[in-house]
Specification:
This protein is of the alpha/beta class. The protein folds into three domains: 182 residues, Class I glutamine amidotransferase (GATase) domain (Rossmann fold), CATH 3.40.50; 187 residues, Rossmann fold (3-Layer(aba) Sandwich); 101 residues, GMP Synthetase, Chain A, domain 3 (2-Layer Sandwich). The strands form three sheets. Strands 2-1-3-4-9-8-7-5-6 form a nine-stranded mixed sheet, sandwiched between helices. Helix 5 packs across helix 6, helix 6 crosses helix 11 and helix 13 runs antiparallel to helix 14. It binds xanthosine-5'-monophosphate (XMP). The site of xanthosine-5'-monophosphate has 13 residues, from loops.
């Protein structure tokens, strides 16, 4: 078991995910809450990155971490904290490093064993280690000559300024594997996403009771509901809420999907008036997310009560919660910066529903693997992610029906074209967003003054990092022309070439 101390990095879950791929058990703990016993029991300790500077001294942590005698790996902030703690110096850099960087490996004997002398890694930091602590040596540097990796071989303490856990660090898995091997940790396969194991778990939890579940048409709720359906069949009641912020034809698509898959009960609730009236004139992104979250709970709760009247007692709430939602997330730690509120349904306690969460132990990509094993087709499992707050976070500022019409239509044209040109599958997520700025244009002989549409298409593995897709110019040309010709109210289309970080995938 490796203990991962979460200093507030957006990537902490990924460290645990990568360790799972390497068949190593890991536990994420907050640095001030990890107990002496947990440190004692750990085979190794990993210190995550984080948004703070070690020079601020703001972060509280169990001081035993540094004398527990266990092998240790610090990543980004964790690397700096190790250097700081053992007497090295950290300085704010004049040049920050974000995104891909070239690493020059000086020592390929342990952490970088089997790797090249030049490696592509993912950086995201301001401060740097400028003087090493005693007994440490530099293992790798960056082009800017900074200490990119260091080690005290005798005590098996290692630091990396970059993030081996993110997909964009090409050989990050090998680096983590090397660390595990050096710690002498045995790698044992778990059966967390075996369909029989999952279905048996649901049957055991639910017994003869009934389950209600909010479904979105997205992959997580689809796979979770399908597993529950397989376990208890007509005792599952699915509810799909139309917020008025869905994509074109989405309601019909989802309804058809659930019918085709043989679900006994699927209820579509049209609550668009409630959502849209409450969102009128609201411009703040967080406020929009909160209104949508609260309204969703209200509508869902009302529907459950109606269902209970109609079908009798319902004891369980099914949820598509996945592993990163369940462990101490970056958002729940005081050291982390909150980037966006996510729209996860937490029903009021007085509803007294017990939870059944079949995907609770799985990461996003494992959910797809489970879906395939359960017999769901690729078209359903490869759908691009769509956020709970829907088009609301893709219309910047205030929302009205006309802006929804515009972004929905532009998005539909983009999606259709991605399908026709066979790019849909190669892109992890794509969409159109409406930028509420008007620019001057000319159509025919007429001056126009209309909105701008931004197209975004990204590749990602886990949504933690993302890169824009270099879609061919002819394709973008085709989509841009079609949008301007067919969508009333748009006279300009731009293509977004921002990576995450520093951008996020959605606009709000
Ligand atoms: P960001 O914008 O944070 O998005 O880079 C990362 C991924 O999460 C999706 N997303 C959401 N999904 N509820 C969801 O279920 C939400 O509130 C939400 N906000 C963002 C986003 O589409 C992307 O895939």
């Amino acid at each position: 078991m490796i203990v991962i101390l979460n200093f507030g990095s957006q990537f902490t879950h990924l460290i645990s995910r990568r360790l799972r791929d390497l068949h190593v058990e890991a536990k994420i703990r907050l640095p001030d809450q990890v107990t002496d016993q947990e440190l004692e029991d750990a085979q190794a300790v990993i210190l995550s990155g984080g948004p703070n500077s070690v020079m601020d001294e703001k972060i509280d942590y169990n001081k035993k971490i540094f004398n527990c005698g266990k092998p240790m790996l610090g990543l980004c902030y964790g690397h700096q904290l190790i250097a700081h703690n053992f007497g090295g110096t950290i300085s704010p850099s004049h040049t920050r490093e974000y995104g891909a960087a070239q690493l020059t490996v000086l020592d390929t004997s342990d952490l970088f064993e089997g790797l090249d002398q030049t490696e592509t890694v993912w950086m995201s930091h301001g401060d740097s280690v400028t003087t090493l602590p005693d007994n440490f040596q530099v293992l790798a540097t960056t082009q800017q000559g900074k200490v990119a990796a260091m080690a005290d071989h005798k005590r098996r303490i290692f630091g990396m300024q970059f993030h081996p856990e993110v997909h964009h660090t090409k050989h990050g898995m090998r680096m983590l594997q090397n660390f595990i091997s050096m710690c002498g940790i045995a790698q044992k396969k778990q059966n967390t996403h075996d369909p029989e194991h999952i279905i048996a778990g649901i049957t055991k939890t639910v017994g003869d009771a009934s389950v209600v579940m909010g479904v979105s048409g997205g992959v997580d709720s689809l796979v979770a509901s399908y597993a529950i359906h397989k376990a208890i069949n007509d005792r599952l009641f699915c509810v799909y809420v139309d917020t008025g912020l869905m994509r074109q034809d989405e309601n019909a698509y989802v309804q058809h999907m659930y019918e085709q898959l043989g679900f006994a009960h699927f209820k579509l609730v049209d609550a668009s008036d409630i959502f849209l009236s409450r969102l009128a004139n609201v411009t703040d992104p967080e406020e929009k997310r909160k209104i949508i979250g609260h309204s969703f709970i209200e509508v869902f709760q009302h529907t459950i009560n109606q269902m209970k009247d109609e079908h009798g007692e319902i004891t369980f709430l099914g949820q598509g919660t996945i592993y990163p939602d369940t462990i101490e997330s970056a958002e729940s730690s005081e050291t982390a910066h909150k980037i966006k509120s996510h729209h996860n349904v937490t029903l009021p306690e007085d509803m007294k529903l017990k939870l059944v969460e079949p995907l609770r132990m799985l990461y996003k990509d494992e959910v797809r693997t489970l879906g395939t094993s359960l017999g769901l087709c690729d078209d359903y499992l490869n759908r691009h992610p769509f956020p709970g707050p829907g088009l609301a976070v893709r219309i910047l500022g205030s929302i009205d029906k006309d802006k929804i019409r515009i972004v929905r239509h532009a998005d539909h044209i983009f999606m259709q074209a991605l399908g026709e040109f066979n790019y849909y599958k190669d892109v992890w997520q794509a969409f159109a967003a409406l930028l509420p700025v008007k620019t001057v244009g000319v159509m025919g002989d007429t001056r126009t003054y209309e909105y701008m549409i931004s197209l975004r298409a990204v590749t990602s593995v886990d949504a933690m990092t993302a890169d824009w897709v270099p879609l061919p110019a002819e394709f973008l040309h085709y989509v841009s022309n079609k949008i301007i010709n067919e969508v009333n109210g748009v006279n300009r289309v731009v293509y977004d070439i921002t990576q995450k970080p520093p951008g996020t995938i959605e606009y709000e």
